[in-house]
């Protein structure tokens, strides 16, 4: 029996929308809206239960012409390898066996030699979706990476985040779930019909006072269709007038995803950015996820909410006695202890430091607080029904990352930081010293986030062993990251 407020399902399929009791397939056709994932509606069963035969039949019945194997490269960008299946046998081979690729190009500078660079793309059937942007009907499937020996490829972001999640379960009995708050600016040329508010007044604004509402809503619908669980979307505070930005008007929006297992949460952020970029291109708009679009204006954060669960029960906040659960303490302690090192994966450009110094609700010092939006880490309030039933699990919010983040590596590092704090000799002392009520004292002692890439490198070097623990982050990868930071 799942306790009140317990974590949603943790299978490999998308969360939110898998109906039916005790794992039975959802009933399809009742209003046509649920489950949210389009392929779950079409196939009549949850994504975790899809088999090759299901997808082969779908391709035949719906006249699908292409199959796209999509995956995340070493640079954090979404890649694709397209096929035009000749027949059912060829399609089955693609879905079951994947295909080879050049690892030295996909993971450049990460230790894969050109003379022995073959790797394999391995499809994950539960991630399949219908590509909403392809000119021909296309079935897309996300893939992991394997070496020639058939083992998960150490350099792959997918491998790294999955190893980190497995390690958290094995070492601490914790299932980690996460969600990203994807912030972005939309830009368009001004017209005589534009009606706008002002900078810092756009939060939750609606049409006609924002022009990007329609695009943002289409993004929410498409993400749900392709199996990315979403929570909500809204306009944000940022607004840049045309005279300040080369004749373009820019306004800020946010799409907040829903909690998903760690590896699916990372995939969700990459897919959300892919969807938003494609929609903007189609509608003649510009889009920016950059940490800073224009100096003096709000930047694009990429906050992550994390909810640890033990046997399906959330442990991301306080228990009935008002005390933090141990798992929440480990998570908070890991983030305040290793937050500067995590910037190597979550704040990767010089513009990241402009955002942090402009004081637009961006953390500047190492602290955590219950509801403090200026803190590095905070515990946000949990919405509840009038009867007191929480409508979502409590989370720990990491407010430092921005739009330059590589979500797979960042979430893997976050999991490693939590386990490192679990072994902290004086965790209670660390939490007392970094509580937001003591932030003034902490700042006066020089406890602040790094102010440039070289300072990030120092922090990464200091905590390197925690990232490499149990082989989660390869040493050669961290060598490359450190070299870039120091350059």
Helices and strands in order:
Layout: H1 38-43, H2 52-62, E1 66-72, E2 78-83, H3 88-97, E3 99-102, H4 103-106, E4 118-123, E5 129-130, E6 138-146, H5 157-172, E7 175-188, H6 213-225, E8 230-240, E9 249-257, E10 260-261, H7 262-282, E11 286-288, E12 304-310, E13 313-314, H8 326-346, H9 350-357, E14 368-369, E15 377-378, E16 396-398, H10 407-422, H11 427-434, H12 439-444, H13 453-462, H14 464-468, H15 475-486
Parallel strand pairs: 1-6, 14-15
Antiparallel strand pairs: 1-2, 3-4, 4-6, 5-6, 7-9, 7-10, 7-11, 7-12, 8-9, 12-13, 12-16, 15-16
Helix pairs in contact: 2-3, 5-10, 6-7, 7-10, 8-10, 8-11, 8-13, 13-15
Can you walk through the features of this model?
The protein has 487 residues and is of the alpha+beta class. It contains 15 helices and 16 strands. The chain has helices at 38-43, 52-62, 88-97, 103-106, 157-172, 213-225, 262-282, 326-346, 350-357, 407-422, 427-434, 439-444, 453-462, 464-468, 475-486; strands at 66-72, 78-83, 99-102, 118-123, 129-130, 138-146, 175-188, 230-240, 249-257, 260-261, 286-288, 304-310, 313-314, 368-369, 377-378, 396-398. A hairpin with a 7-residue loop joins strand 5 (129-130) and strand 6 (138-146). The chain starts with 37 loop residues before the first helix and ends with a helix. The model is unreliable at 1-31 and 438-446 (pLDDT under 50).
């Amino acid at each position: 029996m799942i306790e009140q407020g317990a974590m949603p399902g943790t299978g490999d399929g998308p969360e939110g929308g898998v109906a039916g009791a005790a794992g039975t397939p959802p009933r399809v056709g009742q209003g046509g809206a649920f489950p949210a994932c389009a392929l779950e509606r079409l196939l009549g069963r949850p994504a975790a239960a899809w088999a090759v035969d299901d997808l082969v039949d779908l391709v035949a019945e719906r006249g699908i012409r292409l199959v796209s194997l999509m995956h995340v490269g070493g640079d954090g960008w979404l890649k694709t390898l397209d096929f035009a299946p000749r027949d059912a046998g060829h399609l089955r081979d693609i879905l079951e066996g994947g295909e080879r690729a050049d690892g030295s190009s996909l993971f450049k500078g990460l230790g894969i030699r050109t003379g022995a660079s073959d790797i394999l793309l391995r499809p994950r059937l539960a991630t399949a979706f219908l590509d909403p942007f392809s000119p021909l009907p296309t079935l897309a499937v996300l893939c992991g990476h394997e070496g020639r020996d058939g083992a998960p490829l150490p350099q792959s972001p997918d491998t790294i985040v999955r190893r980190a999640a497995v390690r958290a379960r094995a070492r601490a009995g914790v299932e980690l779930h996460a969600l990203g708050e994807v912030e972005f600016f939309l830009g368009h040329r001004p017209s005589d019909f534009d009606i706008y508010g002002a900078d810092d007044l756009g939060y939750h604004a609606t049409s006609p006072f924002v022009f990007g509402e329609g695009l943002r809503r289409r993004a929410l619908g498409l993400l749900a269709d392709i199996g990315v669980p979403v929570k909500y979307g809204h306009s944000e505070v940022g607004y840049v007038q045309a005279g300040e930005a080369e004749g373009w008007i820019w306004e800020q929006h946010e799409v907040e995803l829903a909690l998903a297992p760690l590896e699916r949460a990372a995939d969700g952020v990459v897919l959300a950015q892919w969807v938003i970029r494609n929609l903007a291109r189609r509608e003649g708009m510009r889009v920016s996820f950059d940490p800073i679009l224009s100096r003096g204006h709000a930047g694009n954060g990429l906050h992550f909410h994390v909810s640890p669960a033990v046997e399906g029960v959330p442990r991301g906040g306080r228990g009935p006695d008002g005390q933090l659960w141990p798992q929440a303490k480990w998570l908070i302690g890991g983030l305040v202890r290793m937050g500067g090192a995590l910037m190597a994966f979550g704040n990767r450009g010089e513009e990241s430091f402009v955002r942090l110094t402009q004081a637009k609700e961006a953390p500047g010092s190492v602290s955590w607080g219950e509801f403090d939006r200026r803190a590095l880490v905070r515990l946000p309030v949990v919405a509840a029904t009038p009867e007191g039933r929480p409508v979502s699990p409590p989370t720990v919010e990491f407010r430092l990352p921005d739009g330059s983040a590589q979500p797979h590596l960042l979430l893997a590092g976050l999991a490693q930081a939590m386990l490192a704090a679990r072994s902290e000799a004086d965790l209670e002392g660390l939490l007392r010293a970094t509580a937001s009520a003591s932030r003034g004292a902490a700042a006066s002692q020089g406890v602040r986030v790094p102010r440039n890439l070289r300072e990030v490198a120092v922090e990464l070097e200091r905590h390197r062993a925690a990232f490499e623990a149990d082989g989660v982050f390869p040493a050669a990868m961290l060598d490359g990251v450190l070299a870039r930071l120091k350059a």
